[in-house]
Write a structure and sequence with these properties.
single chain; 510 residues; alpha+beta; OB fold (Dihydrolipoamide Acetyltransferase, E2P); BirA Bifunctional Protein, domain 2; 2 domains; 8-stranded mixed sheet; 5-stranded mixed barrel; 17 helices; elongated
Amino acid sequence: MNKDNQILTQRREKADALAALGVNLYNNSFKPANAIKDLLPKGTHLAPEAYDETRFTYTVAGRILSMRKFGKAAFCHIVDSSARIQIYVKMDTVGEEQYAAFKKWDIGDIVGIAGKLFKTQTGELSLQADVLTMITKSLRPLPEKWHGLTDVETRYRQRYVDLIVTPETRDTFRKRVEIIRLVREYLNNRGFMEVETPMMQTVPGGATAKPFKTHHNALDMDLYLRIAPELYLKRLLVGGFEKVFEINRNFRNEGLSTRHNPEFTMLEFYQAYATYHDLMDLTEELVSWISQEVNGTMEIEYQGAKVNLAPPWNRLTMDEALVQIGGIEPAILADGPKVIALAKEKGIKLEEQAGPGKAKTELFELLVEEKLIDPTFITSYPTEVSPLARKNEKNPEITDRFELFITGREIANAFSELNDPVDQRQRFEKQIEERGDDDEVHPVLDEDYVRALEYGMPSAAGEGIGIDRLVMLLTDSPSIRDVILFPHLKPETKGQEQDKKKKPSCPCSC
């Protein structure tokens, strides 16, 4: 019998022994009256070895994280969702019967304690137990105290264990909740209305990506998990809602990486009678304010790099960035065939129908993107790669669009919206005509969206912000899996537990 099976057997034997003593291993009647965090300030005034003079009995519940058992006394630490506290258990206080049952408790058990506050000789605030209650018996051991959950894949697969033993993980997801709350607060305070749009769509649109496909039996029709809510949100602009936003899931049938998960969270918002310049100002204010609220500063560190989020942020056109950062001669950028030739020279694979706009965008991703550490808005994207953005009135080869980059990765994408139904139809048709083997471009034109534009959509600007990437930035998390509670992974194979002991494993698809 290997060590793991031996421990599981011992745990079950302890559980059987407790049940034989009449202990309810899965108690559903214990109700804690106090959160541990509320006890901590009540004992700050106590001197070592002093008891709370009120002798008030507090009732808490939590999971055992450590235990030190002696002859007729023991110490353990328990933790609830708010904090941790030391528990002192003395046989003379709880009685021989309760103490005998307590000695069969394990690290990982969820227990209830009623007792009084005091400080130990070393000055640690503790709760001396008067009553002990088993709430849930743990049949599996937690990771060793000093090693924690070090295997990365296990942390992602068994997030429930990661949350138990890794305080930094709990802090990250508390920050995620706070960041999303602050996004809502900011937009609500500025008159935006939160809405919900379909997750299953007949025509996947609003972005270029390969969708997940399913079939609705009753309607006998194919449906697609949405790749973006954009076209539905803009339908609401047509309907008269002038400021709308949605925070919800998008789904893209693409590979896994430190920046990509097939299911991810996006904020998308749209404002009538605004331009992409207005959204740049809004985005600067939103992100810098959230950083100040969550981290207490606008000067943060991400994976060792200093990042200054205080406005104003850098603003460059794509051509300016390619010249200043990418080192490309302006004369080359002005010559379409030369741009395409340069892209191919750099090893970029272009579709046969790709033009200079696509070549510029690929060169930007190769030569510039990862060098944009401090917040930088890149504007004037080629019309060729921006089928939903409004053309610039002075130069129809570019659009009124920006993407925001921080720490070398895209955080947001926005543009002044195209509201000309004739132009929109032509761009959709051209995109479909030139799709070639690109399965990220859907071959069906969204006729209903064009029809909506024909009723008239006000001038507007819209933006999408990747919530997961924003949380990564503000929590100094290196992988998107660190900020998604249950990220997608390859199926766990039989014997994987044994394999992980032999060599480190990688949770990605490489």
